[in-house]
Amino acid sequence: VAGENFDQSPLRRTFKSRVLAHYPQNIEWNPFDQDAVNMLCMPKGLSFRTQADNRDPQLHSFIITREDGSRTYGFVLTFYEEVTSKQICTAMQTLYQMHNAEQYSSVCASSSCSMDSLASSIDEGDATSLAKLQRYNSYDISRDTLYVSKCICLITPLPFMQACKKFLIQLYKAVTSQQPPPLPLESYIHNILYEVPLPPPGRSLKFYGVYEPIICQRPGPNELPLSDYPLREVFELLGLENLVQVFTCVLLEMQILLYSQ
């Protein structure tokens, strides 16, 4: 388990994650920082879900800034895949049995009752909360399907967010599709790493992902720096008034701290 979150139900806890594979193994000008990438890909750790939970893929980005001020950009697609290990499923059910036993004991203790007189002395509120606990806070290995979070990440020298997002989504569809893509997955990964060049300043580049073409554009020397993040999302997340306030603080060269879950 990652962190001290034992009071949470097992499906709401986070567990330690690790890098399963990365390619290429290393690049001289951009050495692979396994700990940093692992933490930034899954900042909250590994998580589990069941068929009853929302498992829609989520995309986020991060920046690694080195001591010399150089930056690399990471784009991450997090999805959930079915747990096929019987051992992990059994361990999850054991965690739930232990957790529910602790909750049962705490409900009993708050009612000031003994185990013999639990049924008669537990009040209606505690009984309702216990019923909800058993209904919504459970995992049954014979009934439920367990899923675990997994990430695919693309690390780039420039923040081509839209292009990376489209490529990762197409790669994810190829992995989860019942019909295999036209070429092996390794071909598409090799293509974007070794055969797709960075577009020259002031030019755009069109390359093919797994299913559809992808276009990325690089600003010229006299243009504003590359900002491939959609402004609409900023307005939706912050709201108009907050965004105007942030913009005012930028113009006044004030220090700004954005805090988010």
From TrEMBL:
Domain UDENN: 1-261
Record bears the keyword Nucleotide-binding: no
Pfam families from the UniProt entry: DENN, uDENN
InterPro entries: cDENN_dom, DEN5A/B, DENN_C, Tripartite_DENN, uDENN_dom
Keyword Lyase belongs to the record: no
PROSITE patterns the UniProt entry points to: DENN
GO terms of molecular function: guanyl-nucleotide exchange factor activity; small GTPase binding
Keywords: Guanine-nucleotide releasing factor
PANTHER family: DENN DOMAIN-CONTAINING PROTEIN 5B, PINSTRIPE, ISOFORM A
Name used for this protein in its record: DEN5B protein
UniProt gene name: Dennd5b_0
